[in-house]
Each structure stands twice: as C-alpha cells, then as structure tokens.
Design goal:
The protein is mostly beta strands. The chain has a domain at about 85-275. It is about 10% helix and about 20% strand. It has helices spanning about 20-30, 105-115, 270-275, and strands at about 85, 140-145, 150-155, 160-165, 180-185, 190-195, 215-225, 230-235, 245-255. The protein has a 9-stranded mixed sheet, with no helix packed on it. The protein is globular.
C-alpha cells in the first residue's frame, strides 16, 4: 500500500488563560516561541536550534540495539528516558479542505471548531494522532522480552497504549476502546502499526476530526536520527469519510525529560475552548460530546 501524504500545517496552541492572567498572556505572546499553557521551551519547534532539551549542531544518528535495529525510546541503547514532542514545522499534515469528509462528519468538525469540548481536556484518553500533538510529549518503551511496545501519554489522563509485536493478529471480537487493538512489525527502520477496535469517545486530532467505530489506521514510525521521528498515518473509516486519507508530521526528541506528575484539571487553561459559544459546561457529566 502506497503512502502519499497531503500537505498543510499543524497549529500547536491552547486557549487564553484565566481573566486575571490576560495581561501576562499578552506579554507572553509577544515573546517568540512562547505559547499559552505550554511549558517554557516545549512549544513546537523543529531543528537543533538550542533551548530546553535541544542540543545545538547536527543531530547524531538514531540509536540502535545490539542487533542493529533502530530504537524508538531513549537517546542511546542504555538510556530509556526522553520524550517525543511535536515538531514545529511538520513535513506534512492533512489539509482540512482536502480531507474527504462525509457531510455529517464535516458538520461535526465545524461545530467542534466553535465548541471545543474536547475529551482530552476532560482527562479522557485520545487515540491515533492526538497524543503526539500535546506539548508534554509521549514516551516509547519497548520490552523486547515481552514483544510489546508501550506509548505513554504524559499529559492528560496518564494512560498508555500497547502495541503487540509478537506476530499475533486482531481478535475476532473486540470491545471498542480509546486506543483500539494495535499490532506492529518492523519494515527496515520503520515500525508499522495496524489498529482497529476504536470507540468514538475521542478526537482524531486537535482540530476535532471525527470518526466511527469502523476506523482502521496504519501508522508508520521512522526515527531518522537521534532527534527526529517521522510519523505517518493512513485513516480508513468508511463511516465518516468517503475514502481513505493520509497525514504525516515530525516529532522531535527531548532527552532531558522523564515522566512527571500531571494533574489534568489543575490550572486548566482550556476553559474557554471547552465553553465555546455556550455559556457554561457541565463538568459533572461523563458524556463526551
């Protein structure tokens, strides 16, 4: 199957903070590279330009295991720490106008652009591309003895995704879940991941692209050097789209960060996103729009 990515850009931004902090926010936005609600130095930005967690100069080769296969985890074969953050200048990302939405799905996206009641801001897990678009990053941990790869979502609900690399196939019956059921294999230096069994309780990305339980994804993770990973995904959901479509962007590695405590609701800067055109949002409800 050929993978021909579409062009566009990814916007990494959060909502305006609390009213009492608006003056400070305006000052922050005048500083290059600063984004509201994003820790200093963790805003999207590719390259080796210096700053927190980024070394200057050309990137070193991708680390490899003793058998020669590229590692997706730490900066070296002995170091497992380090997280992957969204790159600031994606190679490609699907342009909204080029995505083959069914009419109802396009209508849902239009509503979500006004009323951003995103499950991720309400501490729910998010599948597909959404975890890779947070300013806190994700961590890859490979346990070769178990033939599994885990992807830990640092921000949000502190959940993790399991990718089985032991040659198994998808079960005949699956209970829909946020991450679905993932099986993976290596094609040279690329980890290919096939996933089905998603529920409808999350957004595909930060902009709010919808999906159904018929969603089937093929992801490709390629670490091109120590600091860079190319991510590509094929979205195949006949319930929401008229044909399959593709998206791709870069991730950058920060070797100075490990998993840390993240309290989802504390100092939540996304309150205005969650309210949108409505007057209020009932946070007591477990129902996700």
């Amino acid at each position: 199957m050929r993978h021909l990515p579409l062009t566009a850009g990814v916007v990494f931004c959060l909502a305006v903070p609390l009213l009492g902090q608006q003056q400070q926010t305006a000052q922050q936005l005048q500083r290059p590279g600063v984004q509201v609600g994003v820790p200093d130095g963790r805003a999207g930005g590719g390259g080796r330009q210096g700053g927190r967690g980024r070394a200057t100069g050309p990137a070193r080769p991708a680390p490899r295991s003793t058998d020669g296969r590229v590692l997706l985890g730490g900066a070296t074969a002995k170091e497992r720490n380090g997280v992957w953050l969204p790159g600031g200048a994606p190679v490609t990302d699907a342009n909204v106008k080029d995505i083959p939405f069914q009419p109802w799905a396009r209508g849902v996206l239009a509503d979500r652009e006004i009323n951003e009641l995103e499950p991720h801001t309400r501490c729910k897990p998010s599948g597909v591309t959404r975890p890779f678009l947070t300013p806190y990053g994700v961590e890859f941990v490979e346990l070769q003895e178990l033939q599994r790869i885990f992807i830990f979502d640092i921000g949000g609900p502190h959940t993790y995704r399991t990718i089985y690399t032991d040659g198994r196939t998808h079960p005949a019956k699956l209970s829909p879940s946020y991450y679905g059921h993932s099986i993976g294999w290596w094609e040279d230096d690329t980890l290919v991941v096939d996933t089905i069994g998603f529920n409808e309780g999350f957004w595909l990305d930060r902009r709010g692209s919808p999906h159904t339980e018929r969603l089937h994804t093929i992801e490709r993770f390629t670490r091109t050097d120590e600091a860079t990973m190319q991510y590509e995904v094929l979205i195949d959901d006949p319930g929401a789209y008229t044909k399959p479509w593709k998206s791709a962007f870069q991730l950058r590695h920060d070797g100075n960060v490990d998993l840390f405590e993240y309290v989802c609701q504390q100092m939540n800067y996304a309150h205005e996103l969650m309210v949108g055109s409505n007057d209020s949002v009932d946070r007591r409800s477990p129902i996700i729009p």
